[in-house]
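dumping this here before i forget
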Amino acid sequence: MTAIAHHDDEAERERLLWVLSAATLVIFFQAFMVAPIIPRLSQIFAVSPQEAGLVVPAYLIPYGVATLVYGLLADRLGLWRLMTGSLAAFIALTALTATARSIEELALWRALTGLGASGVVPLALVLVGRLFPYERRGRPLGWLFGAMAGGMAFGSTFGALLEPYLGWRGIFLAVAAAGAGVLLALVPRRRIVADAVQTVGGGLAVLFRGYRDLLATPRGLRTYAFVLINSIFHSGVFTWLGLYFERRYGLGPVGIGLALLGYGIPGFLFGPIIGRAADRHGRGRLLPLGLALGAVAAVALILDTPLLLAAAAVTVLSLGYDMTQPLFAGIVTSLGGQRPGQAMGLNVFTLFLGFGLGSLIFGEMLRLGFGSALVLFAAIELALALLSLQIFRSEVPAPPGQQKGAS
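structure:
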């Protein structure tokens, strides 16, 4: 009976992983479907591309800030209520975004959606940290980050491809409907979610001490710092790719969507494989390569290359993301101790703060031209790759007898 029960628990964990991956994909689809239609939104609302582009950080920065609160509340109140409440808020606010009548209203609804939706993905990462031991955590993390990559890929592609047919309002309503379907699929998994993490007490003093402790160790500080700078790089380049392809190659919405088709595909297809490689060979061996790939992709976009090569560079850029941020998250899952929600909340806060800052910084640098912006961003990413060779050299698998279980 014990073996049967263990098999049933394993199967239930796998089913939950699929539902969490679906939720992650829908949320990231919604987050990344806007950037490629910035040129179209600029026309619809009669504003400059820079003004229209503000709807991207309007979502990303509140999303990141709110994760700090969700992480704390999850440790105190439990994952189930926070995760389902956040998913319900995502559904309602995404649908309400379709009522916007100006770029300011659109930015406001995006900000509110960021605040409401930001509990799902970080808490899903916390669940993985609790349900799977550290030495086997790469594969399920690979699924979640593969879903993020899939959301980026399909959002950036189909946001642009569907807008001429559904309109931007129709896309938001369709995503809200997809989110409702995921919520219905999550409800039968209530028990395993509720039992996965025990609640933890403590007031504000304990909260701030927890953040201080996470950043006080060299391992924690370097991981969160790299998450921030790497996310600034990737968001800065990605957010403005729609405008890049419009200006450099004269593409319309459909052409932009096809040019971005490769973004997210590597992680969607190979996320679990990358996760297994990290478990087997060590994150310290893969991180420098992933950072270097991002820099190479940015350099390729600077050059006067044929359209197909520029589209291939977008795929390489995505692969660089898929070989870095999921691996950083794997490290973070081992930092939180009894407060995994706080550790992952800080990780997602750092990630989305970087996303928001990256889109803002790159947008301002566009006043100097795409070439100047890409040169600076590529140089910073290359510097990170070189630093990571030394800084993350200790992130290798422990001997079998010293492997850590789930905490």
